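User: Structure tokens for both sequences below?

Assistant:
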Amino acid sequence: MKPAEFSTRLLDWYVKHGRSLPWRGSPDPYAVLVSEYMAQQTRVETVIPYYLRWMEQFPTLQALAVAPLDAVLKAWEGLGYYARAHNLHRAARVVMTEYAGILPSNMEDLRRLPGVGDYTAAAVASLAFGADQAALDGNLRRVLARVTALPLDPRTPQGQRQLTDYARGLLPPGRAGDFNQALMDLSSLVCLPKKPRCSECPLTDFCRAYQENRQADFPVKVKKAPVPTITVTAGVLRRGDAVLLTRRPANGLLGGMWEFPGGKQEPGETLPECLVRELREELDIEVSVGKEVGIFRHAYSHFKVVLHAFECQIVSGLPRPLASDSLEWVPVERLEEYAMGKIDRMIAGEITGKDSPA
């Protein structure tokens, strides 16, 4: 196979079938940067409405850099993996202070930005600045693992190196951005994880998996350990028409987001006992546990949560944020103004009678 034949076939397909995405063709590298942060571990179809709203609210790096974290997290709410929002916000501030507000174009400087690894640096360098860089995320690795019938899990360092070297050998000089985007679209429209549409693929002449009728065998995957399920409790504490929210520490899961206070059930505890202990440890208060508000479920990348929320009444003490950054008594009608993770938004929806956003 000649690399030029591979890239020509792919790029001809891309001209006819490539997706129309709002950040494509933008002369603003910031638009590419935002799209790449949002697309980490998230489907493009999900990203698009968030991207459009984000660019209206924070149209420039400077606008994002000067925005308060609360506004950034609220704009990101529902997109998940909130460390990306923190990192993008910090990256904007780094660019403003260290690069005079101009997004760097070289890989070394791009990798210095918070949350930017090899893939995101290569994607931004190729898409925004035309650099000859191969950008391989999980979807692109799937395509090339099938093309090469890679006998390794492409997520391993060795598998990643082999596919990156292979992709670099295919890059058409000066058109790496189009090449990367073409592979992205091929992975989304044709070379699907299950039931790939090989009859529509421009690369069947080069694809070993297709030629050997082994599409389902690639990419090779190392079996993952079962995902654990954690049981947690949360308390709905009221003061007049307000409920108590606490703000999670900036570092860690859902950093900076607001939540209903509570925590993980320990072995041997009943759910009410768990909640009494957690609120004592987190807020220095004693509570009585009332009726159950609801049971809420959510899956994160490495674990699942089943949360039991209860109405609670303070018996003694004044709430203090011992395990959180701060706390606020928030009028129920203002809960939508506070950035929350999915599961706490579901609790808020139960309280207010409004469905949580998709």
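Moving on to the next sequence.
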Amino acid sequence: MKKSLGAKTMLYPTPVLVVCTYDNEGKPNAMTAAWGGVCCSLPPCVAVSLREATYTHGNLMARKAFTINIPSEQYVKEADYFGMESGRKEDKFAKTGLTPVKSNMVDAPYIREFPVNLECKVIQVVELGLHTQFIGEVLDAKIDDTIQEKNQPIIEQIKPLLFAPDSMNYYGIGKQVAKAYAIGKEIGNK
């Protein structure tokens, strides 16, 4: 028996993404967002949805560029802080001690200490109600040398954060369950 909960955004888990932009004065800003993910393979694109009231929303509209930064578990405190304070009032990089690095490809900074960084140019903006979705074409993906093998990320070493919106908790990843595009062959071969 299943119980109806009504219309809810129960997509589990959601990624913890830190969106970085520059403001009008060129000050770097970071904001944690969970409403985002991959939206196209070719060209490679990601989407992030933000409320208009956020400082980052205005920066994105003005600069048309952002980075997506994937924090590891060791940076859960900093990632949470980035989502709690506004860049209008706080220099979040000064408070956290993390390092903004000027992107090579877009007019936005990325976070040196976070293991994965995607440099994106805004190619489409979609108004959806409470949120605006920014679709960004990924112009470059950066990953720490220590957590990749043959240019492929090792997710167990990245240790990305996951977010459960209803319980408002962060989680880490579990162990590998199966190999994609392989385990299903067991059914297809019956």
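User: Anything stand out in the second?

Assistant: Residues 14-188 form a domain with the Pnp Oxidase; Chain A fold (CATH 2.30.110.10).
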